[in-house]
Amino acid sequence: MIDAGYTEVFLSLVLVAIAIAVGRWWKIPVQKEIIWGTFRTFIQLVAVGYALEFIFNLDNVGLIFAVIMIMISVGAHTVSGRTKNTSSSFIIAFISITIGSLITLGLMLLLRIITLEARFIIPLAGMIISNSMNASTLTINRIASDIKTNRLRIETALALGKTWREASKTFQQDAVIAGMTMILNFMKTAGIVALPGAMTGMILAGAEPVKAVLLQVIVGYMLLSSVSISSVIALELTVRKYFTPHQQLKIDV
Amino acid sequence: MTSTGPILKTINLSRIVNTQNQPKTIIDSFSFEFERSKIYNIIGATGSGKTSLLRLLNRLDEPTGGQIVFDGQDYREYPPCKLRYKIGYLFQIPYLFPKTVYDNLLYANPKLSDGKISELAVHTRIENNLLKSNIENLSIGEKQRASLARLLAIEPVIILLDEPTSSLDPTNTAAIESLIKDIVLTKGLTAIMVTHDPQQALRMGGTALLLDEGKLAEWGTCENVINNPQTEIGCRYKNKALK
Lengths: 253, 243
Fold this sequence. Notes:
- The structure holds 2 protein chains of 2 kinds.
- Chain A folds into 2 domains: 1-58; 62-242, no CATH class.
- Helix content of chain A is 77%, strand content 0%.
- Chain A has 11 helices and no strands.
- Chain A is globular and about 70 Å long.
- Chain A is mainly alpha-helical.
- In chain A, helix 2 runs antiparallel to helix 3 and helix 10 packs antiparallel against helix 11 (209-239).
- Chain A has helices at 6-11, 13-25, 31-58, 61-82, 89-110, 118-149, 151-159, 164-167, 169-189, 197-204, 209-239.
- The termini of chain A are far apart.
- By secondary structure, chain B is α/β, with parallel strands linked by helices.
- Chain B has one domain: Rossmann fold (3-Layer(aba) Sandwich).
- Helix content of chain B is 38%, strand content 27%.
- Chain B has helices at 50-57, 80-86, 101-108, 114-123, 128-131, 140-153, 170-187, 198-204, 222-227, 232-242, and strands at residues 8-19, 22-34, 39-44, 65-70, 73-74, 87-90, 158-162, 190-194, 207-212, 215-221.
- In chain B, the strands form 2 sheets. Chain B has a 6-stranded mixed sheet, sandwiched between helices.
- Chain B starts with 7 loop residues before the first strand and ends with a helix.
- The mean pLDDT of chain B is 93.
């Protein structure tokens, strides 16, 4: 097991120095960003470490829920910043991430895969929320852009008496697939192209490889569930904004 | 379906939209009665509301005032999808779904038999070998004929045609014009066609409706409205069209 302490962190700054040296050698103006990034990584992660230790020690259900809701709000805010062409995207992302996360975590608790302890729930919620956040962003952007660039195709279908759902069916499917691409690619290549983070962390911390792998499999399935739920809900809430109850396309949303 | 009276009637039909937070009237109190089995040409300058009117009649856009009466019934009594089966719309630029013309006809009406598909192809002068060929290989004229066949596949009683020949050469334009006249004659449909070309309206015959800033400025036979206008707006349009 690697025993990482402040001394080891200090020694690992040699690696940062290499990155700066490479940048300077090739005259790539990234030195400032590297230094700022190094500083921020240290401060943010150490702060999170102490916060987590505090929360884990309290192990209060209300506090766990509050932390999850804060994480979801920050995630939804990030989505709204990346989906500026869609109005109310914060609400869309908040609802889709919340439902995806709570159903997945709730099922895992119900099936007794995990227990209601902060040290399990919070790291898993973090993984779920960040993946759902990316999936929601991709889904919202994809459906919005496809509808805007395929107006003639959609209105041709509507004019032939098709419903809005039929007229935009292909684009809805493509948007959900776009949202799920990352997790599907991850599942196809897990262990072959890269060793997943949770598993690697456990192995580095001294866990048996098979146990670490089994946990990673559960994490993979967990992310698949939350990402698919979040993508579908983000799609439903977004695509409906583009149509009226009279089966008309609204481009200026 | 009732057998007498106009097939389509509009009463003070209006559409006002917000452009840059300013209300803009696109269609202004348009009232007219469209008879069965007739050809109507909607003419007018660019921006006069020709396409907007057609979109309202197909309910692709929602009127902000007035009424549309289809076959004696208020348009709001029909679910939009059902209304669009009765009032078909042909877009200016033909869009065909992947992959073949045959697929497009079935997409429009999944109940079509092979016999009915062949009949539609004959009617719209689509050669049999084109039915199953990829739409990518069709010329623009063939695409517009295929779109027309697909429109007829839903068995409408009114066809709305938005400048259907604007992207076609004279030969294909003549072919589509003759096809539309033939459809009106043999199938007893009502055709309401937008055209920017007064000469085309004269070739099509029937009734012309001159729009100006969303209002019906003048209507009558194509010959009268285009060559002998009775209103100032009509005279202005004639002078501009002759230039």
